[in-house]
Specification:
By secondary structure, this protein is mainly α. Helix content is 32%, strand content 5%. It folds into two domains: 164 residues, no CATH class; 40 residues, no CATH class. The strands form three sheets. A two-stranded antiparallel sheet has the order 1-2. The radius of gyration is 23 Å and the shape is globular. 20% of the residues are buried.
Amino acid sequence: MLDEERWPVRSVFFALVLFCAAASPVQAGSSSARAFSHVYRVLQHPRCKNCHPVGDRPLHGNDSHPHSFGVQRGADGRGLPDQRCARCHQDRNQPGVHKPPGAPQPARLKLPAGTTRWQLPHPKLPLTFEGRSPAQLCRQLLNAATNGGLSPEALIEHVEHDPLVLWAWDPGSGRTTPPGTHQEFADAVRVWIENGPACPAPECRGNSPRRPAGSGFRDGGLTPKKPRGRTTSRLAGVLRPPALAD
């Protein structure tokens, strides 16, 4: 291979090495990393994920299908003016299989008895769980701009005591619960934060994100289209950096 043909290969190789090295802040075997692995599994369970959707429509059931009746997040996270969450969701689960669930407001707020906590996150801070990779969700949870303005200490307090979090392990008849117990989840969040917090590195292999048409990449990934010229056959299969999942 000619020297001028080696440079593109070397450039791609060293760029990938530097990217993956910079994105690997914590060893996978650390206590913080192991704790976050459990946290991630819990947050991807339907009892958690269904209220943290990609769009403005909450999800239902273990298959996470869109909420009935066209229910939407609304301007404050509590539903549209004519479809407020509180119309169906009270401060406790309704009796019966798959009846409307509910949860109370935290006692510290000293709101009137019977005030429901049921809502989606505010649209300005939606904190999406659905479809997020471990690396993406980890960074969202640690960023006050995307986690509801919570400090790490406040995040621990939130998962330990917020009635909506506690509800996931008492969701009413006919609903499954996240893996483990609530106490195990709260302990995992504390270990994750107090011993790191560790975030998984963005993956350097796997499925690639979609790319807009005409972006100069094949199959919506990060594989460049074959260049024209005599070096194509020599570089084919070499200038194919692994796709990024995050």
